[in-house]
Amino acid sequence: MSEPRRDMLVVVRRARRKKHGHHGGAWKVAYADFVTAMMAFFLVMWLIGVGTRQQRAAIAEYFKNPSMTPGTATIAPPGKLGPGGASDSMIKLGGAMDISHGAGKDRRAATPVTPAEVEKLAREREKQRLENLLQQLRAAIGKSQALAPFKDQLLLDITPEGLRIQIVDKQNRPMFATGSATLEPYTVAILHELAGFIDQAPNKVSISGHTDDAPYNHASQYSNWELSADRANAARRALLDGGLDADKIARVVGLADSVSFDKANPGDPINRRISIIMMTKQAQDAALSQEQAQAAPTIPVPVSIKPLASGAP
Fold first, then answer.
1. This prediction's pTM
2. Shortest CA distance to 151 belongs to which of 164, 162, 138, 163?
3. H or E element that contains 225
4. Parent domain of 53
5. What is d(CA 145, CA 168) in angstroms, rounded to the nearest whole number?
6. In a 3-state reduction of DSSP, which class is residue 258?
7. Which residue of 57, 118, 256, 285 has the fewest CB atoms within a 10 Å radius of its CB?
8. Could you give the CA distance from residue 87 to residue 297 in angstroms, rounded to a whole number?
9. Residues 119-172: tens digit of each pLDDT
């Protein structure tokens, strides 16, 4: 057996593996952002679906003003791109070091908010807005030359239903012609002046007419009930002529002498008045729900009638 030659060349062929490019992790970040955005979107949709009307209003108000202190600014803060644009102020980027911890407690856990707390917060903000409106209206009346002679006939206060503006009669200065729903010229001027201010607020408006306890002398059955309702509608028309949006009027009623201003003296001229209430959201919703309940069709309930026994009368 001969030995292999040492000068022989041995060639070994091996398959080369193709090298793949490095994909990186950028797509993972984009995908995580997408999933987070979708989760936030469905969470918001769920909250809107299960919340009550008052809770949704509170959530909307929170996004308008995230601060716990209600703001009074009427325009957006200035920025580089104009009002409401990008701000050039420093933003503090908080991290784990900015979170304070109590002894043995992690304060990063969010405290759940109950529906009662949301409704309470909404009512507190509503009350604050009404108080701001009251101060603004008093200032407007003080600056108005048209309303200056009638300051003693304009009574302002806050009731559970909202901000109430009452225009009352005086002994020698009634709002209406005697025994009729015809407005005196100065009463029209008062209502026109008030309409501009009332229209600036988002509140719905309730208008009610009141009389004293003096019986209305008329041959027909026309009484203080009809008179007070006609006077309330006359005030409504004057407010519309003054620029009030018709969609803001939620209710017009005549109450005759059933709700006296001066209960001890039901015949006092101050009881003859027009009451305009800029309603709260709760009062507006309550009034609307009552109307919807009254307008809902009734469902007849079938009554089973048993046949009379033989021989019965």
1. 0.57
2. 138
3. helix 224-241
4. 32-64
5. 19
6. coil
7. 285
8. 55
9. 788 888 888 888 988 898 888 888 888 888 888 889 999 998 999 999 998 877
